[in-house]
Amino acid sequence: RADTAVYHFERAIELDDTWPEGWMGLGETYQHLLPTKSPQDSLARDAFWKVYERTSGVYAPALYHLAEFAIRDGDLAAAARLLGRAGRPALAPRAARVVVKSEVGI
């Protein structure tokens, strides 16, 4: 199913690559449904950046995913900026602790 979703989102984006919802769906598919095409993290991140670019950085769901990637990369300043754009700047320190605990096991 995930591969079928990727196929259809990619076809839709070919028709209109300015459609942020298509990019968001593609990113969500790579992030959560794990199709066979890889590397899923990079493909998801790229799709979420496309959403960011096409919405002038105001679409909160994409901002949350991009902030999560920034936290995983250890770039808390970028995460705070992204969460601030989403109207949630206070989440950055808490989110960083959650990601570190889940990924490092602290």
Provide a brief overview of the structure.
With 106 residues, the protein is mostly helical.
Order of helices and strands: HHHHHH
Uncertain segments are none
Shape verdict: globular
Compute the number of helices: 6
| Computed CA radius of gyration, to the nearest angstrom | 14 Å
Question: What integer is the average pLDDT?
Answer: 86
Main sheet record = none
Helicity, in percent?
over 70%
N-C termini distance: 35 Å
The beta-strand count equals: 0
Strand content: under 5%
Helix/strand structural class = mainly alpha
Explain this structure to me?
It is a single chain. This protein is mostly helical. The protein is 75% helix and 0% strand. The chain contains six helices and no strands. The protein has helices at 2-15, 20-33, 40-54, 60-72, 76-85, 91-104. Helix 4 (60-72) packs across helix 6 (91-104) and helix 5 (76-85) crosses helix 6 (91-104). The longest helix is centred in the middle third of the chain and has 15 residues, at 40-54. The mean pLDDT is 86.
